[in-house]
Design a protein that fits this description.
- Helices cover 47% and strands 15% of the residues.
- The chain is of the alpha/beta class and 402 residues long.
- It has two domains: 227 residues, Glycogen Phosphorylase B (Rossmann fold); 156 residues, Glycogen Phosphorylase B (Rossmann fold).
- A six-stranded parallel beta sheet has the order 2-1-3-4-7-8, with helices on both faces. A six-stranded parallel beta sheet has the order 11-10-9-12-13-14, sandwiched between helices.
- Helix 8 links the parallel strand 7 and strand 8.
- Helix 2 runs parallel beside helix 6, helix 3 packs parallel to helix 4 and helix 9 packs across helix 14.
- It is globular.
- The two termini are 24 Å apart.
Length: 402
């Protein structure tokens, strides 16, 4: 099978970029011919660059012609779009339609439902724009990058293509990462029958040593930013008087503020900041941790961190919210706590510490869940089912036209 992947990379590489590369390598490992067409937001420089990007957001004729050329030379069986925002734009769908090539769109975030792509405002879940034809609230609050002008450009794109029927008629299949994610996108107006649920996957970890796990510390891995809920975690340690060591891996805009919060509250002996670490080091830390804490305060898409934890036989204590509550099964692969509630989080951490046999069982369940759902093999099977269904539908439609 020949697959053309289209992706708009971000300035700072994130989870989406990792998933795109992983899927490309997965497909190639099974013998498929894959061509990846990427553009980079690095080209958005200065006022002129931002103006050009704003105009491209709604519809980029340049991108349409570029992917037409790629299709003409490569002749793919299917086009898989990961991220079209902001430079590619939904114009890529038209190029595929003109060439009678079926197109699949992975929904890595909530962009088609929310101008910010993250239904979170002022530290709280916000669904004001979900299901609205014109997402005025996102513009009024400047949700995209704190700018009403830039938010208006995104809102215009969403509104234009809703009225045009782009989301309904020019995409053959969508991939949502969880059932929760799918339901939110249906609420936003996408056709339910076109949305398939396929999670992300991670490679099985390889450890330096397979010695007995230490299990003498708790672990957080993630970006140190508001939506990740690290402040709630620190509050849980302070209010719950927790003594199990906590290792925090990652960096971000709240790095210094969180370090200061730990020192001010006298938690410097218990909580350690390790900064950004290599993937190999993170997996070693996961292998030796007692449990992972995932206190995010927003819906999340599909956190690779949780899949990696399961691959390392590591239970997860996660906020009972959105996709997290779906991925982590309470009492089976981890524990749920009430989002933004430090006392409830502290109680769940204490429970995990005082019930080692239950945690041992959760370790086994976590690994079994990984092997059943999040391996490359399982993911490839799901992806092929989606591709084949879309191509068969396209062929049937073409035969009916003839």
């Amino acid at each position: 099978m020949k697959i053309l992947i289209a992706h708009n990379r971000y300035v700072y590489a994130g989870g989406e970029d990792v998933v795109v590369q992983a899927e490309r390598e997965l497909l190639e490992s099974y013998g498929h011919n894959v061509l990846i067409w990427e553009v980079n937001n690095d080209s958005i420089i200065g006022i002129q660059g931002k103006v050009k990007a704003a105009l491209s957001v709604v519809y980029s004729s340049t991108s349409r012609e570029q992917i037409k050329e790629k299709i003409s030379h490569f002749r793919p069986d299917i086009v898989h779009v990961h991220n079209f925002f902001p430079l590619l734009s939904p114009a890529v769908y038209d190029a595929c339609r003109d060439a009678n090539i079926p197109v699949v769109q992975t929904l890595h975030n909530y962009r088609l439902a929310c101008p910010k792509a993250m239904p979170l405002r002022d530290g709280k879940i916000c669904e004001d724009c979900i299901g609205k034809v014109v997402p005025w609230s996102g513009v009024a609050h400047g949700c995209y990058r704190g700018s009403r002008v830039q938010s208006a450009a995104v809102a215009t794109m969403l509104t234009f293509h809703t009225f045009r029927g782009t989301w309904q008629n020019r995409v053959d299949a969508y991939i949502a990462l969880t059932n929760f994610h799918k339901d939110k996108m249906v609420q936003a107006g996408l056709p339910r029958d076109k949305i398939h649920v396929k999670p992300n996957f991670v490679l099985p970890p390889k450890f330096k040593s397979e010695t007995h796990k230490l299990k003498n510390y708790a672990l957080f891995v993630g970006r140190l930013s508001e939506e990740k809920g690290v402040s709630t975690l620190i509050d849980a340690y302070a209010q719950g008087h927790l003594s199990i060591p906590l290792k925090i891996v990652g960096d971000g805009p709240l790095d210094e503020a969180l370090r200061q919060q730990v020192q001010t509250r006298g938690l410097g002996e218990v909580i350690t900041f390790l900064g950004r670490q290599t993937k190999a080091t993170v997996l070693e830390l996961m292998y030796n941790a007692k449990f992972l804490i995932f206190p995010s305060i927003w819906y999340e898409g599909f956190p690779l961190t949780i899949a990696e934890a399961f691959a390392c036989s590591l239970p997860v204590i996660a906020a009972k919210l959105g996709s997290m509550a779906e991925i982590v099964e309470d009492g089976v692969t981890g524990l749920h706590f009430e989002v933004r509630n430090p006392l409830d989080l502290a109680a769940k951490i204490n429970w995990a510490i005082t019930h080692p046999e239950a945690i041992d069982t959760m370790e086994i369940n976590a690994r079994c869940t990984y092997e059943a759902k999040y391996t490359p093999e399982a993911n490839y099977k799901q992806l092929m089912e989606i591709y084949n269904q879309v191509m068969n539908q396209a062929q049937t439609k073409s035969e009916n036209v003839l």
